[in-house]
Structure formats: structure tokens, C-alpha cells
Amino acid sequence: MHIRNTHWPAASAAPAVAPGGGEEVRPDRTAPLRVDAQRNLEHVLRAAREVFGELGYGAPMEDVARRARVGVGTVYRRFPSKDVLVRRIAEEETSRLTDQARTALGQEDEPWSALSRFLRTSVASGAGRLLPPRVLRVDIAEDRSGGAGRAADARVPHQRTQPDGGEPGLVPDGAADDDAGAAELLEVVGRLVERARAAGELRPDVSVSDVLLVIATAAPSLPDAAQQAAASARLLDILLEGLRSRPA
User: Fold this and answer.
1) 209-248 per-residue burial string, b: 16 or more CB within 10 A, e: under 16
2) Mean of the pLDDT values across residues 32-39?
3) pTM, two decimal places
4) How far is Cα 228 from Cα 226, in angstroms, rounded to an integer?
């Protein structure tokens, strides 16, 4: 699934300042901000990561504003629509996951060590709760019938929805395949998967989609940070054992 209005507006589409010379109204990362405006932006981004991580990308902007302890108007001054905020968070998380995968590739000579390092780092960072909806999509039966070696055709499960079953802002997947950040993530993770499979350390039926599924599954959102870390570590150990190949 992915966010409604899959053609998110480009950052340059919104005006840089509000009419009358007020506070900036779009998330231009290069424009200088006043100290208070920068602080509000950081609070909003932190709150958005927490709220979307707990409730999914269907959570309303009002929840983000409440968590950031700012008015909802402050959120909309920086992010004219929810789609813009979601894209900002999703892009940052995608970039972070790609960097983690690239680091694992560059610093671990052993294929299994590289893959497991990437998974442990990604799960510990909580990135699985914020994987972009345009990447989080799968038809399990189709994925299994399509073979294990197609890294470029990675598909993973749908993003979490609201607890009441509603999905404000979410629609069935059908576009956004041209997202460069997501494609880069899939390509780098695909290299980790292919190396581990070629070394005989990864089950031959494991695909990139399975690896992303592990990241999404092993990052539960629990109220206690210590319990969350312990649960994630334990669950990841179990899932890693499931990914490893077994002697015939």
C-alpha cells in the first residue's frame, strides 16, 4: 500500500514564505531558519517519526502536532500537506536504511556477517516501523512463485493501518515504482542477499522482500524502551535462524 496522491508535490512546488513575509511554509532543507522555527521543525520531525512509527502513516497530523507540543498550524506551515510530511520521513528512513546496508557491505567481508549486521543495525534503529509504504507491499503467493533471485522485484508486506481498521490517507498500491530512493535501497539490500545466497549461508528461497519483512517484523512498538529493545533482539535472533541455510 502507499500514501494517497502518489505523485507527491516536489519541494519546489510550494512558496518559500507565507504571504506577508511570515514563517516559511515548506520543508526547504537548504533555506536558513530562525532559531525558533528550526526548533519547531525538529520537534515536528521527531514527533512524526514517533507517531507514524506507532500508528503507521495513516495517523492524523493532529497527533503529530500534539506529540510535538505545537499547534497543528505550525505543522502545516512547514508541511503544507500530510503527504509532504510523510514523504520527508519516508525519504529520510529510506536513506538511512540504504546507508546502513552500504556500511555493512563495505565493512564486513563475510557475506552472512554483512547481512546480519545490516539487519541488527536496522532493527535496533527502529527503521522497520517507518519503511515507506511505496516499498512496503507484497503478494506473498506471487512472490513465492516468482523465484528467490529477483532482487529488483522485491515486495514486502503492507504498512500498518490504524487500530480501528481505518486507513486515512492510504489507498491500494499501483504506482510510485519510479522512486529513486526506494530503488537504491532495494539494489543495495539485493547485493547483501545475493552475496549470502552465493556463499551458501542464506536459504535459496529467501528474497529481498523477506529481508525487508524481517526489518518490519522485528521492530515492535512497545511502551517500555527496555522491553522493546529486548523483544526486538530476541525476535531478530529467531528470524535470523530462519533465514540461514541448513546442511542437506
Assistant:
1) bbbbbbbbbbbeeeeeeeeeeeebeebbeebbeebebeee
2) 75
3) 0.66
4) 5
> What gap in Å lies between CA 4 and CA 2, rounded to an integer?
7
The one-letter amino acid code at 155 reads R
Q: HEC string of 116-147?
A: HHHHHHHHHHCHHHHCCCCCCCCCHHHHHHCC
DSSP alpha helices (H): ranges in 56-198?
Answer: 61-68, 72-78, 82-107, 111-125, 140-145, 180-198
Length in residues, the chain: 248
The terminus-to-terminus CA distance of the chain in angstroms comes to 38
pLDDT band at 158 (very low <50, low <70, confident <90, very high): very low
Average pLDDT over the chain, rounded to an integer: 74
- In which band, very low, low, confident or very high, does the pLDDT at 175 lie, cut at 50, 70 and 90? very low
Report in angstroms the alpha-carbon separations of 26 from 9, 31, 59, 78.
11, 10, 20, 5
The helix (run of H) or strand (run of E) holding residue 237 is: helix 225-243
